[in-house]
Amino acid sequence: MTAFTPPPGTADIFENEARSWRFLESTAAKVFSSYGYGELRTPIFEYTEVFQRGLGGETEVVQKEMYTFNDRGGRSLTLRPEGTAGVMRALSNTDVANGTEQRVFYYGPMFRGERPSAGRRRQFHQIGVENVGRCAPLIDAECIAMLHNYLCSIGIKDATFIINTRGVAEDRAPAEKLLREYFAKHLDKMCPDCRTRFERNIWRILDCKQEECGKIIADAPDYVESFTDASKAYFAEVKAALDLLNVPYKVNSRLVRGLDYYVHTVFEVVHSGLGEQIAIAGGGRYELFLPGEKRPLPGVGFATGCERLLLVREALQLPPPESPQTSVYLIGLGAPARLANMGLAASLRQQGLRVEMELEERSFKAQMRGANRSGAKFAVLRGDNELASGIAIVKNMADGSQVEVKEAELTDFIVKSI
Ligand code: HAM
To answer: How far is Cα 304 from Cα 268, in angstroms, rounded to an integer?
Structure first.
């Protein structure tokens, strides 16, 4: 590794790829705004307690993965590992705390100190939404359906939606008791992390990806059965709405999600286009305590990982968005012609055309090579003679034919011919 490559888990994104990113983002803005969502941009770093409090101190992200540093005044700051906590912090300054619903979407970089691998980065990018202020099963269902709509809109139509319910605070104790009784019998065969989780936060065991734990987890009792009737009814209503909206899903009570703020509905979207199944999106309903507030604020939302969406699109062999074509290439021989071409380029660009030209002294041959490389439909050729006579030569690059056009009519002529 040299100082000239980006740090592990980060990447430079060049135009070819950046075009695909813009496609993901612009499609998101289109789909989400059709559901009444508007964009929110929050800072890339926040006070550390925004995430500690929001995500839960026991979560893997907060314990092991945050990029935390002190500002000059000694206050602890953290690069955002996800978007929800910062969005809630921002919304706490609006009238959302009085029960007004807010629908926001966001995109941008997130940072987690994970071991980099395919589709796992330390700087990765999410596109996400949060619907904040109210709590109802149909809001959750609409949110999941919107994610389904978005994935279909970017060509990913065969992803698997896994959903579950986490119930509410009063559901946790009886469910935890069931899990504790069960896992206590198997703890000696489980990984060291799970033994710690058993003591600190038993739900995290259900997240464990270790093979030896997987089998034991698969046979764990269905704790959702112990939830209150109200929580079960809430989940039933979410499922009924998803059925009505034709959103396919699978229920899996092992899905608890890695962040502590979730209640009621949780969901994850996986895709196997890359061989092993990877999570391309995740989300759910949550309750977050805002600084200074005694009551938690309800919300529901999700985030998709852009790197993973692009990997899946590649695996599905979906064509990348087309690169914009250069329409006109301006060739000028001599300084006066070059300057005149700059003026022509400005007026053609104002008409929305993509224009390229040579800005330095180059031979005619070299400029023609540039015109050919650019893929332009037309080249405009001018030198001292053309300037003196007030005409320019317009060359059709496809068939090589040439016409003479008066200087004053050049822009109109080219715009009409394209
Ligand atoms: P999350 O499941 O931690 O949820 O992340 C959402 C998605 O971000 C994942 O499904 C994955 O596609 C992508 N992702 C996560 N970590 C990485 C990584 N290291 N490299 C590449 N992609 C990654 C959240 O972040 C919640 N804030 C979602 C949410 C919004 N819940 C409610 N509202």
So the answer is: 10
Are 106 and 25 members of one domain? Answer: yes
- Ligand 1: centre distance to CA 305 (Å): 6
Backbone phi, psi, residue 328, to 5°: -135, 140
Block residue for tokens 């490389």: 373
Which residue out of 10, 122, 124, 287 has the highest number of ligand 1 atoms within 8 Å of its CB and is therefore the one to mutate?
124
- The answer to whether the CB of 176 falls within 8 A of the CB of 204 is no
The percentage of residues in the chain with a pLDDT greater than 70, rounded to a whole number, is 98
Q: From the centroid of its chain, how far is CA 254?
A: 25
For residue 354, give both structure tokens. 């993509």
Confidence of residue 2 (pLDDT cuts 50, 70, 90): low
383 domain-assigned: yes
Q: Which of 123, 126, 256, 288 to mutate to test the pocket of ligand 1 (most atoms within 8 A of CB)?
A: 126
Residues 151, 30 share a domain: yes
User: What residue has token string 């000028």?
Assistant: 332
**The tokens 């809109």 sit on which residue?**
153
Specify whether 409 is located in the same domain as 336: yes
Cβ-based neighbour number of residue 366 at 10 Å: 12
User: Could you tell me the pLDDT band of residue 290, with boundaries at 50, 70 and 90?
Assistant: low
Band (pLDDT 50/70/90 cuts) for residue 3 is: low
Its pTM stands at 0.91
Cα(124) to ligand 1 centroid in Å equals: 9
Structural domain that includes position 246: 15-168+228-315
Q: Say how many Å lie between the CA of residue 377 and the centre of ligand 1.
A: 44
Note whether 75 and 158 are same-domain residues: yes
For the chain, the domain total comes to 2
Which pLDDT score, from 0 to 100, does residue 401 have?
97
pLDDT at residue 277, as a whole number:
83
Q: Give a yes or no: residue 333 inside a domain.
A: yes
CA 121 to ligand 1 center in whole angstroms: 11
Of 82, 151, 255, the one to substitute when testing ligand 1's pocket (max ligand atoms within 8 A of C-beta) is: 82
